[in-house]
User: What shape does this take?
Amino acid sequence: MSETSTYDFDVIVIGGGPGGYVAAIRAAQLGARTALAERDRLGGTCLNKGCIPTKSLLNSAEKFYETKKNAGDYGIDAGLLKADLANFVVKKNQAVDRLVSGVTYLMKKNNIKVFKGTAAFVDEHTIRVGEDRITSDKIIIATGSQVRDITLPGDMSLCVSSNEILNTEKIPENFVVIGGGVVGIELASVFHCLGSKVTVLEVMDDILLPFDRELVAILKEKLRRDGITVITSATVKEIRTAEGKSRVVIESGGKEQAPAADLILLAAGRKPCLDGLQPEKAGLRFSEKGIPADPDTMQTNVKNIFAIGDVAGGIQLAHFASAQGIAAAEQALGVKSHVNLKVVPSCVYTVPELSSAGMTEEATKAKNLPYKVARFPMRGNGKSVVAGETDGLVKLIYNEESGEIFGIHILAERAADIIGEAALALNMELTAAEIAATIHPHPTVCEAVMEAAHIASGSPIHQ
Assistant: This one.
């Protein structure tokens, strides 16, 4: 960058989450004098209160559940097996601290100046962070999102947010989740594995709405068999406490129900984080939905300011924010870049896992695209049979004439690890025949993707 610049920095990134710190690293790699402002810990929601801590708890809970449930089948005497949630939390914190330290190291390695505190705009080129007033040619906003406040009638003393529940050290007998999105369903799985009686309440007519309905239906049936109660079209009327017992009173299908609750998780959404930012002082357009930005350039209505990730009001996924962060840094510094919005993989870490890339069958149908569906059930996959995880399938949606793939959806053990292959195939515009012709290792769960591609190509092997 030019050494004659009158600004303190070439790029300032506001927010140190997976979008922000990645944007800062990319800007520094391109030679920009880069600063990052973060009011809390580096890593943002993802590392500290979202992706990483929830997956740590899930990992511990699933290991406990699997051992307790199936130990005898594998010749293991589980004895007096007991889950210690307090130790799960300790392990979770260790994983988080390790990864946050890694981000801190990357900031130093790339000579990125980190300012601690809440950033507020002074004008389109200036922000204030605590006592520091700093200027920059380009600014990237990556402040993320925060838990949406929910007020319910009645006694809310048992209610916790997705932030607070991460440090819960007591396993509730009755656990009620209000919200059937990804966060709610994943945490429902955690406490089910730990032995809680779990009820999920969703105001919409189904859970996990962005995902393919066929696979969600299979997952719901698996949750039901495992003992998790899912009630949809549920309106919460009140939280009623009497004689030391609490119940969440709801109405669903014209009938009133009142599941017992010892702990209630409020998981009904997040909102863009604009606290203290004062975007109006930079001339930015914004609303409660966030700061709108061009999906191709991430540029806001103020040409030198970019917005990425959750704060831009779009897809709320850490890996999407990271991709936007790289592209925004490159765009800000004159490097042509873009994010392929058609291929943004999504995952739900349940048992089995649910993952998706590309269009669902419902979206394909809504666009009036000619399509067919190839399905390969996990009961035909050797690795899944050995693991005892045969619920689910790989679903491939494609154009029979051209072989073009519209979407790939997976419900299986390790589905979240496999969906990257599907995203790559879609991004490279591979046909079903090309996936089928790619040798996959055996025995692996990912073979099921190849098998579904064989079916789509008209040459089914194991079906």
Summary: Residues 179 and 267 are 5 Å apart (CA to CA). The mean pLDDT is 94. The first strand starts at residue 9 and ends at 14. The radius of gyration is 24 Å.
